Amino acid sequence: MEKTLFEKIADGEIPADIVYQDAQCVAFRDIAPVAPQHVLLVPRKPIPSLSGAVGEDAELLGHLMLTAAQIAEHLGLKEQGYRVVANTGSAAGQTVPHLHFHILGGRTLEWPPG
Ligand code: 5GP
Questions:
Q1: Whose CA is nearest to atom 15 of ligand 1?
Q2: Distance CA 94, CA 75 (A)
Q3: Mutation test of ligand 1: which of 30, 49, 83, 88 has the most ligand atoms closer than 8 Å to its C-beta?
Q4: Model-level pTM greater than 0.90?
Q5: Residue 103's CB: how many other CB atoms inside 10 A?
Q6: Residues 20/67, Cβ–Cβ less than 8 Å
Q7: pLDDT per residue as tens digits for the range 11-53
Q8: In a domain, 112, yes or no
Q9: Residue nearest to ligand 1 atom 4, measured at CA
Q10: Which residues face 61 on adjacent strands?
Q11: In ligand 1, which atom is closest to the CA atom of 16?
Q12: What is the mean pLDDT of the chain?
């Protein structure tokens, strides 16, 4: 099966500004940032979206959430706050069919989102 864009980045086949990686996931700066800090956190496993996650992914999803918090702290966002977003499906604006969490911070983020 054709690799997703984010699998290619995770495998080092497409360059990216990587801020963190381990055996289960990779985090890199978004190519079109919408906030002063905008990092994408992706599992190495090519789950198409949050809707595609299954029971056996529970530990991986927990690891991703804890890792997102650690990355946000590393980026200096812990004190002021930040947002972790998983756009899921077309109505939510998902454009890359590989589960990813946006870690956004460095400015005031409005609510509700557009
Ligand atoms: P989505 O819209 O699916 O929630 O988020 C996909 C994100 O991937 C977008 O914010 C977009 O800017 C980012 N993106 C798309 N292509 C690339 C790429 O080649 N490299 C990096 N670093 N980010 C990308």
A1: 31
A2: 24
A3: 30
A4: yes
A5: 25
A6: yes
A7: 999 999 999 999 999 999 999 999 999 999 999 999 999 999 9
A8: no
A9: 94
A10: none
A11: 22
A12: 98
Q: Which residues are catalytic?
A: 100
**In this model, does residue 1 exceed pLDDT 90?**
no
> How many angstroms separate the CA atoms of 15 and 86, rounded?
22
CA atoms within 13 A on the CB side of 46: 13
Domain carrying residue 74: 5-105
Q: Two tokens at 69?
A: 């918090």
Cβ–Cβ under 8 Å, residues 42 and 10: yes
CATH of the domain at 9: 3.30.428.10
What six digits make up the tokens of 37?
Answer: 């800090």
Specify the residue with its C-alpha closest to ligand 1, atom 19: 31
Count of domains in the chain? 1
**Which residue's structure tokens are 């991986």?**
60
